[in-house]
Every structure is written in structure tokens, then in C-alpha cells.
Amino acid sequence: MKMKAFAMLGIGKTGWIEKDVPACGPLDAIVKPIAVSPCTSDIHTVWEGAIGERTDMILGHEAVGEVVEVGSLVRDLKPGDRVIVPAITPDWGSLEAQAGYSMHSGGMLAGWKFSNFKDGVFAEYFHVNEADANLALLPEGVDPAAAVMLSDMVPTGFHGVELADVQFGDSVCVIGIGPVGLMSVAGAALRGAGRLFAVGSRPNCVEAARNYGATDIINYREGDIVEQILEKTNGKGVDRVIIAGGDNDTFAQAVKMLKPGGRIGNVNYLGSGDFIQIPRLDWGCGMGHKTIAGGLMPGGRLRMEKLASLLETGRLDTSPLLTHRFNGFEHMEEALLLMKDKPRDLIKPVVIL
Asked: Are strands 63-70 and 29-36 parallel, antiparallel or unpaired?
């Protein structure tokens, strides 16, 4: 049986293809999408060749869907269940998972399967490994489009907050306020940040950042962001920095604005270049106790269930991220190209199927 899908044909090329419907293993599930969203990671993958050449690989790793088939050993799911699908679907029996790093199960970043080394979710059907451990039921009354943001944007943004170890009253700077950065702002506020700086310039993102808890906006178009932060903090800098945007040079800015003893949490996907530069003196000649932590978001069912509870209880509202809605699978390419071109009114597109 064949299915229609939107794929990376090669570096710099995308298009519609037909593929066989994936087979379901005993622990697995086959899901059809209800709502999906393209990601900047898809752009890095296709147009920058960030993970190397891929041929006819189905794109996409953000979805809410309906289970159509489960394997013989699946206990907690059945056909017809509506589920949140995390972007990261680890192998939970791996040694890496047992060590506490499930996102690296099978090798570095290998918990990221969809649209990396396995077909993604922009298809009429897709496969999910270890369904009981990797799929969470969509709570009644939660909008599937809003819940798609739980696949990647929310857990990635929140993981930046965890990596930076934001504590009550900390001064925090979030660099980049696209959808991931906005969720870092929201997560930092939920974690009790005091003064919360958000670096960005697009008016709708600035408005959303303020609504999510930012106390100060730093516009990089109005001057060096390090100088602005130092001016606003009387030269002291901030306790925590979360990097959710920028490029390889952003690390140098983060180190310069960070207090001794502070932490940087990076969740930005660096799609090009071979090295990052760390300024020696600003890093205290290597002894400034300025910690840099970079990590791939955790996946799995428990993570999705906990994040879904934030939507259920009204602690978090992801609907402001959804600036462009499309109805119909045929709009998949249009939505993806929005993420590539990034018009000023864009935060995140979603396609409802």
C-alpha cells in the first residue's frame, strides 16, 4: 500500500513522493497526522545540508495524530486514540537512556529519529517506535494545533531553561525569540526568573515575549546586545543565558554578558560552520566558572504528559505561537517555505489535516 508524503529529495530540494506505508513492529504504532508543523530544523536539514545528504527522506518531526495500528505488545494505546508525538522518540532500553540521556540513545542525537535518519511525519501515515513509551494521549478539550507545539517548541525551549538551571529571582537573558525562544521565556518565568531579558526585533515576537513574562526587550538592531545588557545591569551581567537563536558567534556574546558562576543553556541548532569561538578573557581565562551546557530536548511519553498538563490547567498557552494556519495536506510545502523565508509576521505555521 502506497502513501503520499512531502520529502527532502536532496540538499536544496523538496517535493511530493509516494512511499510504502510503514510496517508496525510489536512495540510500535502507525499514526496518521491530525496537525503538523514545519520547523527551522527542517530548513537547516534541507537547505544547509546540516546533517548531510538525504534522498527521498520524509520531512517533519512535529505532530499530533490518530493511532491507526498498534503492535501486539502495546498495552496502553489502541486505534482511534489521539496522541501527541514528541520530536524525540528514544530507545528506552538503551544504555544511554539508562544513564539519563535518552535523547542520545544509540549514539549522539540518535533519539532524534524523525527526519534525521528515519522518515518523518509529513506523510499520510508514519511509524512511532516504542509506542507506550513515546506517545502521550491528547487530553480532551486541548486543541490539536496548540498541542503540536508540545512536540518540539515547548520541550526545546523549556530544556534551555533546565540547562541554564534558572532559579527563583535569577536575572535571565533569552537570545532569540522565535517559537523556541518564546517558550524559553515562558519556561524561565514559570521557574521564577526575576528580571527577564528577551533579545529580538520582530514586533509580534516582542509582544508575545512580554506576554510570556519578559521584563525587558533587547533589540539587536539598536546596538550590541552585550553592551545593552551590561548597561541595564550596571555592568554586572546576568545569572543565566539561554541561547535559542543566533549563530556560532552567539556563544561569545553569551559568555560576555554572563556573570561568574553563571550558566548558559544552548538549545539552538547550529546548522553550519566547524567551530564556535569562546572569548578567553571573558571566560576568565578558562577559570571564570561560566558553564556552557548544550542539549537536545528530552522526549518520551512522561515529558509530553507533564507538558500537556500545563495546557490543560491554563499555566501555558501556546496559541499565540500559531500565526499561520493551513487546512489540508496540500499546503505542506507552503508552510515549510514560510519557515525558510521567515516573513516578519511569522512565528509558527501549522497544517491541519
From this structure: antiparallel
Q: How far is CA 137 from CA 104, 156, 302, 308, 309, in A?
A: 24, 20, 11, 9, 11
| DSSP letter for each residue of 92-154 | TTSHHHHTT-GGGTTSTTTT--BTTTB--SSBSSEEESSHHHH-EEPPTT--HHHHHTTTTHH
181-151-25 Cα angle (round to 5): 150
Cα distances (Å, whole numbers) of residue 50 to 88, 267, 272 = 18, 16, 6
Cell numbers for 166? 534558572
| Cβ neighbours of 100 (radius 10 Å) | 9
Report the candidate in 318, 326, 334, 330 with the shortest Cα–Cα distance to residue 350.
Answer: 326
Helix axes 332-341, 40-47, angle to 10 degrees: 90
pTM (two decimals): 0.96
Rg (CA), the chain: 20
CA 188 to CA 157: how far, in whole Å? 9
How many residues are listed for the chain in this entry?
A: 353
Query: Scanning the structure block, which residue is given the C-alpha cell 499514526?
Result: 31
Q: What is the mean pLDDT of each run of 10 residues along the chain (353 residues)?
A: 97 96 98 96 91 94 98 98 98 97 97 96 98 98 97 98 98 98 98 98 97 98 97 98 96 98 96 91 97 97 98 97 97 96 95 97
Q: Rounded to whole angstroms, how far apart are CA atoms 13 and 18?
A: 16
CA distance to 111, 181, 300, per residue, from 278 (Å):
28, 22, 33
Cα-based torsion angle of the residue sequence 84, 90, 96, 99 in order, rounded to the nearest 10 degrees = 20
